[in-house]
């Protein structure tokens, strides 16, 4: 059994932390497992000594964009997680949002523009039109990636150019999304053999309302509540929407769906993650514990299902 972590993305350090926790949980569940980086030695190793299965704990590319999944498929190694096609759909935020809209799943209005378009057509003119279309505040995000990298809330038009530069530092395309005030909630979805099921929702309370990289991974900065402090009716709807998102995107085994719950209880999907974090401050392990399960037992079921597919 291999746990794949590391890689060369901006999220390498977080990925290694996730990988080590997954490894510890699998060893505790009785697996023979080892942690491997995703580097040039991986494919020859998979070919010479193929493992029974792999667990992908890489965040960012190639762990979430379908690339590593394609490599494992080529090597004939079964793995926990979504197929390459589904991973690519979820990885590209504008594509995922389009699929959700077509499925009737609510997600905030958005505009997507590549950096080249700003250069060719004039950044200020385009930004003026975006503000007229979506209003302010706006959430500016890289079209790909996670961990809050390059994400910024913009409350004035003057701050937009700098926010766009920040997003372009992590991806060649930026997503400009209408800001929706409310409570940040994450719902993890796992399929332990009876179809995808939602785990208890995690309410996220960062100190200044900005759930950025530091707020996600620095212990003691952010407060989490699991289950979320929301009415039962809202929690049920959040679970339904999370499972519907997982299904609409064709995801498999596990995912984390990030939601925003508005003041009136309306819920909108922000994004889906195919390789949820597994660190000591990550949300899926919190939800597993709140559901009265052990992380090792959940991972054991997922790995067993992957092995059976192989």
Automatic annotation (TrEMBL):
<dbReference type="InterPro" id="IPR013815">
    <property type="entry name" value="ATP_grasp_subdomain_1"/>
</dbReference>
<comment type="function">
    <text>Cell wall formation.</text>
</comment>
<protein>
    <recommendedName>
        <fullName>D-alanine--D-alanine ligase</fullName>
        <ecNumber>6.3.2.4</ecNumber>
    </recommendedName>
</protein>
<dbReference type="GO" id="GO:0008360">
    <property type="term" value="P:regulation of cell shape"/>
</dbReference>
<keyword id="KW-0479">Metal-binding</keyword>
<keyword id="KW-0436">Ligase</keyword>
<dbReference type="InterPro" id="IPR005905">
    <property type="entry name" value="D_ala_D_ala"/>
</dbReference>
<dbReference type="Pfam" id="PF01820">
    <property type="entry name" value="Dala_Dala_lig_N"/>
</dbReference>
<feature type="domain" description="ATP-grasp">
    <location>
        <begin position="97"/>
        <end position="304"/>
    </location>
</feature>
<comment type="pathway">
    <text>Cell wall biogenesis; peptidoglycan biosynthesis.</text>
</comment>
<dbReference type="GO" id="GO:0071555">
    <property type="term" value="P:cell wall organization"/>
</dbReference>
<keyword id="KW-0963">Cytoplasm</keyword>
<keyword id="KW-0067">ATP-binding</keyword>
<dbReference type="GO" id="GO:0008716">
    <property type="term" value="F:D-alanine-D-alanine ligase activity"/>
</dbReference>
<keyword id="KW-0464">Manganese</keyword>
<keyword id="KW-0547">Nucleotide-binding</keyword>
<dbReference type="InterPro" id="IPR016185">
    <property type="entry name" value="PreATP-grasp_dom_sf"/>
</dbReference>
<feature type="binding site">
    <location>
        <position position="258"/>
    </location>
    <ligand>
        <name>Mg(2+) 1</name>
    </ligand>
</feature>
<dbReference type="GO" id="GO:0046872">
    <property type="term" value="F:metal ion binding"/>
</dbReference>
<dbReference type="InterPro" id="IPR011127">
    <property type="entry name" value="Dala_Dala_lig_N"/>
</dbReference>
<dbReference type="GO" id="GO:0005524">
    <property type="term" value="F:ATP binding"/>
</dbReference>
<keyword id="KW-0460">Magnesium</keyword>
<keyword id="KW-0961">Cell wall biogenesis/degradation</keyword>
<keyword id="KW-0133">Cell shape</keyword>
<dbReference type="InterPro" id="IPR000291">
    <property type="entry name" value="D-Ala_lig_Van_CS"/>
</dbReference>
<dbReference type="InterPro" id="IPR011095">
    <property type="entry name" value="Dala_Dala_lig_C"/>
</dbReference>
<dbReference type="GO" id="GO:0009252">
    <property type="term" value="P:peptidoglycan biosynthetic process"/>
</dbReference>
<feature type="binding site">
    <location>
        <position position="271"/>
    </location>
    <ligand>
        <name>Mg(2+) 1</name>
    </ligand>
</feature>
<dbReference type="InterPro" id="IPR011761">
    <property type="entry name" value="ATP-grasp"/>
</dbReference>
<dbReference type="Pfam" id="PF07478">
    <property type="entry name" value="Dala_Dala_lig_C"/>
</dbReference>
<feature type="binding site">
    <location>
        <position position="271"/>
    </location>
    <ligand>
        <name>Mg(2+) 2</name>
    </ligand>
</feature>
<keyword id="KW-0573">Peptidoglycan synthesis</keyword>
<dbReference type="GO" id="GO:0005737">
    <property type="term" value="C:cytoplasm"/>
</dbReference>
<comment type="similarity">
    <text>Belongs to the D-alanine--D-alanine ligase family.</text>
</comment>
<feature type="binding site">
    <location>
        <position position="273"/>
    </location>
    <ligand>
        <name>Mg(2+) 2</name>
    </ligand>
</feature>
């Amino acid at each position: 059994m291999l746990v794949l972590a590391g890689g060369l993305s901006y999220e390498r350090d977080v990925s290694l932390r996730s990988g080590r926790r997954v490894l510890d949980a699998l060893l505790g569940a009785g697996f023979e497992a080892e942690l491997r980086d995703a580097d040039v030695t991986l494919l020859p190793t998979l070919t010479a000594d193929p493992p029974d299965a792999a667990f992908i704990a890489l965040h960012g590319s190639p762990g979430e964009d379908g690339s590593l999944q394609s490599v494992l498929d080529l090597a004939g190694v079964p793995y926990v997680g979504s197929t390459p096609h589904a991973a690519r759909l979820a990885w590209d935020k504008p594509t995922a949002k389009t699929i959700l809209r077509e499925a009737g799943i609510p997600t905030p209005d958005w505009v997507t523009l590549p950096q080249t378009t700003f250069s060719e057509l004039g950044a200020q003119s385009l930004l003026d039109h975006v503000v007229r279309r979506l209003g302010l505040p706006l959430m500016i995000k890289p079209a790909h990636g996670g961990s809050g990298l390059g994400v910024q809330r913009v409350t004035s038009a003057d701050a937009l150019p700098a926010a766009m530069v920040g997003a372009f530092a992590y991806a060649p395309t930026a997503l400009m999304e209408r800001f929706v005030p409310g409570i940040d909630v994450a719902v993890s979805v796992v399929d332990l053999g009876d179809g995808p099921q939602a785990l208890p929702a995690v309410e996220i309370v960062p100190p200044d309302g900005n759930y950025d990289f530091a707020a996600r991974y620095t212990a003691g900065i952010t407060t989490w509540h699991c289950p979320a402090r929301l009415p039962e009716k809202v929690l049920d709807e959040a679970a339904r929407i999370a499972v519907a998102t997982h299904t609409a995107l064709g995801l498999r085994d596990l995912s984390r769906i990030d939601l925003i719950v508005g003041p009136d209880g309306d819920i909108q999907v922000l994004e889906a993650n195919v390789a949820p974090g597994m660190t000591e401050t990550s949300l899926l392990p919190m939800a597993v514990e709140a559901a009265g399960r052990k992380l090792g037992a959940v991972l054991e079921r997922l790995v067993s299902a992957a092995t059976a597919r192989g």
